[in-house]
Amino acid sequence: MEKGGHQWRRLHLLLALAGWGWGWTAQALPSNRSALLLAQRINEREGPFLGLVVPTSFEMDAIRQQTIFAPHPYIPWLDLAGRRFHIGTIQGHKVVLVQSASAMLNAAITTQQLLDFFDINGVLHYGIAGSANDSLTIGDISIPKYWAHTALWNWEKFSNGSGHLLSSGPNGDFTQDLGHLHFSDFAYPNNGHSQNLLTSVWSQPEDVLKVSGTPEVRSRAFWVRVDKRFYKAAKTLEGMELTSCFNATTCLSIRPKVVVGLRGASSNIFVDNAAYRQFMFQTFRVSSVDMESAAVALVCYSNEVPFIVIRSISDSAGNAEGANEVSAFKNLASLNAVKVLTQFLKALPKQDSPHDQGMILM
To answer: Nearest Cα to 95, choosing from 125, 63, 50?
Structure first.
């Protein structure tokens, strides 16, 4: 019986690929190869799509709770390479929505898979973040103009006060032009004469291989700018009303706002330290910090795909007394991120495509 069911699922897939009709909801894919063939067919009949990358389950739950995502009636999702790609529409835009899991590696892998498997003409990334700027408070939405990965470091050798000994590398790979974190500056108490065996770290730009470039010939990038068309649409959201209360016990004392045009930074660091928060703002002038956005930005930059990031402030990155606020406010922050995402898609002009009339059935 189980063997027959497996063959029946394969038959439905083959019929779908042959153009006879969907008739199969992608609940269990027979093989990754078959799934790739089906993805190709979806692209031919349905694409292009906007790609939506979300880090974690509670941020994904926020989009389900607001019921703005309408799944495709026949192929609501496709499981590929350990991830579930949800296919549907939001505000009339055809989208592929995928959860990456947290941190830079997962965000980069997921974004690249999204671009490899599907016909994507733009990537939207949303989620929560910590505030590195006192002007941003919990519940606010930050839509930065620039993103950077600030924790690609060259760690300086201890020199006992004889000067910076940053290695230049065999090809002059390392630079002192970007942020410099000198650990002795943060000694407590700091009498101005402290030394630290950890000495200093220097932030470095990323090596980037662009799709339009020569293979194996790198370019370098630190600040990556969001797409101009997306940014223009985001500017129209300033002044929109956001949610102040998640429930009867979780409310904000200050009305949240949308801020467009700052700088954001990402790394594999959950920032819950006031001194490091201050360093990030003073050194890079970043207003929000998280663990994924710059990875999405760099993958899109490498693939020359438009992108924008919407991040809702869930905590003060260590600047508040007591425990970090993220546990209390992550759900409220996620709902505001989705609320702004919805309005962004409403404000975003639809681009012409062969399938603008809506979802096309095979």
So the answer is: 50
